């Protein structure tokens, strides 16, 4: 195994060395006699950084302890170099990392004071003293390494080579509805569905539990089974349903919010007022009451995934009324006592999951390694060693997929290399089904990662169990932490995307939402893998934790990154320790926490670079004043909090790169926001989502941001979403000065097109930078968007376009967008030749025809049109009588439909869609006859697409 902190330390060093280089090159006149001191420190740290590269591939003490135990049992000589050196190396790495952090803090504080006081003598003298102290520490640490003769290269010779980093395709294959990798799952799914379908009308609970003693039954695929059942046509016929991840440390208030959002949110159409507005302020008793009221007269299906205790079941079951409607609750748990308690009534049932039989284990393994059910003839010699590896995985899908994902990417698929992997697994799960065995297997896949990905992966432990990690915020946090940097002409987002794709390809994280283009929009970390990386993060003082009883941070002399996670009551379980020092913290993450942690005062966090507060409803406007004193802050997320106004002091956050105020009540930004010269991402507004994986969403028009005059000063800005252009008229006149702008979401609720004229004039100046453009004119009877018909310099490199508002014809410049991948239209009232025009766009993958975007009577996909289209949404085309597929869109995979009235002639030609995977019906009204006809067509379709209904 590789030392877990090597990449984290190198990331810190890389950022620091760049800053030291800037000081030497640019600040010479302000440093007086300090130039030589800084150069010497830089040289010393460069040597240490080079050493980090050498130790990549060295085993940690857990693996070497296992080797020592094996040697003792075999009465053979212990290799002291292997068993002893990693302990010393770990200590040395920790010391170097701490030097890097302290040095960067010193430089950042100096540069901050420099900008405020122009390099006063007092500031320079303080820097001199601290740099000399840090340089002395660095030299002593270097001498210590030589004293203990830590020869990294000798140790590497004893370890198997790690797999190479492969530059994977950014657009992973879309996996919607694809059960091909779920070897052995079909039989389990059918057995559970048979239990659900028993004909009694009473409310029934079915518990899925693993066999006793097997790592708490973790890794058997219970969640995958529950998801497969939940997405089956049988369950899809139950219109009222929800899938809720419970986990060990859940917040009951937030869990009930999720439950209600799924039950009620999807039942309200785009034209409805939001019945859940203000749900964050409801008491638990009100949330439970709303659930019971909504479910009282309905047949429903609820999944409670990963239930841990009897108390959890007692808290949740009161929300589900027994209404004699043949309702069902499916529970997954790793605790047999919980399973039996949940199924205490005579009509309740328990389903025991078993490990995969050996032959099915082998199929899953080869499918992961070779994309085939069998070992290819070229690698036939690997069959025997494969059996040994599989024996150590004991039929657990999670272990098999993890090891298979790693071996799929090894440099050399040889017996020698695979034997090294098998040896590194130790006893695995072969002799005793313990959590330690599972950890060893999962750790091997993690440690095989290239060094530059490790810090990014360890960082995933800041997210609570079962948390859905969104792509954009994750990338922005990685960048703010300094874990990724642009290479040549590649921007940070592209680098981060490759890292995430690498994690997915290795089956280390699981995608939860994948766009039609194949991009992973969000993912989760399996709870056992999360436990592994959390333990390693604590071990290396990479991240400290509060509020979670499982993970103690005792012994962390300096807290650098802090994640506060709450239990089911929303309380913090480490409130008693009042001696914690937060002064060195660089990152603070408090996610979905319903109560303010008692120990937290934002005034204690002077050196913070990253502050994540999503879902912290307790946050107040008063708290923001202390936050605005964090002069080094780069990333600030206030999403889904109770704040309503940014203070003027926000302009003091000169280093801020991301300001995320989505789903808050903040609309008007203070004048000082334009002083944020480093800001790249300005994110505001609010969406409402419909359908099961949020393919259909609606922006709330009155939630857009009002930006003050002075926008032209924000030269670094790359993304603005969403801006009210009518209320921000002066700022919109300056829009053309933002040469780095790649994403712009603009809207107006005013009549007429005057505000759009000045906007389109500025848009002409952004023709080469924009990649994503949303235009919303929120008056269906008004022709204010006509000004865009004559756009002189359209954004020629546009990849995504969302156009909401009435137009007499489709703007002709849209047809010249050869890079356009996604097009969304709403309330445009187009007729006639729309598809023939759009069908010639060469790169279009996703077409979303939202409410009243098309008002004709017939949509026909003719031959040779839409050559790359994979996703089509038709949402309430009011006059539509016929939808036909006559040879166009041959690559269509996902078809999502909603109708205000039943099409008089119907839907024809899905047999001409050879790649179709699924058809989904949604909306306030779903016509059963239409769904039944589609199901019948799907059964004779060669690809057997699945048919869903969502209302």
Automatic annotation (TrEMBL):
Domain called NB-ARC: residue spans: 189-373
Record InterPro entries: Apaf_helical, Disease_R_plants, LRR_dom_sf, LRR_R13L4/SHOC2-like, NB-ARC, P-loop_NTPase, RX-like_CC, Rx_N
Gene3D superfamilies associated with the record: 1.20.5.4130, Helical domain of apoptotic protease-activating factors (1.10.8.430), P-loop containing nucleotide triphosphate hydrolases (3.40.50.300), Ribonuclease Inhibitor (3.80.10.10), Winged helix-like DNA-binding domain superfamily/Winged helix DNA-binding domain (1.10.10.10)
Molecular function per GO: ADP binding
Record GO biological process: defense response to bacterium; innate immune response-activating signaling pathway; plant-type hypersensitive response
Pfam family, one: LRR_14
Keyword match Zinc-finger: no
Magnesium found in the keyword field: no
Origin superkingdom: Eukaryota
Keywords attached to this entry: Coiled coil, Leucine-rich repeat, Nucleotide-binding, Plant defense, Repeat
All copies of domain Disease resistance R13L4/SHOC-2-like LRR, residue ranges: 584-946
Disease resistance protein winged helix domain boundaries: 462-533
Domain Disease resistance N-terminal: start-end pairs: 12-73, 89-123
Family listed: Belongs to the disease resistance NB-LRR family.
Annotated protein name in UniProt: Uncharacterized protein
Lineage of origin: Eukaryota, Viridiplantae, Streptophyta, Embryophyta, Tracheophyta
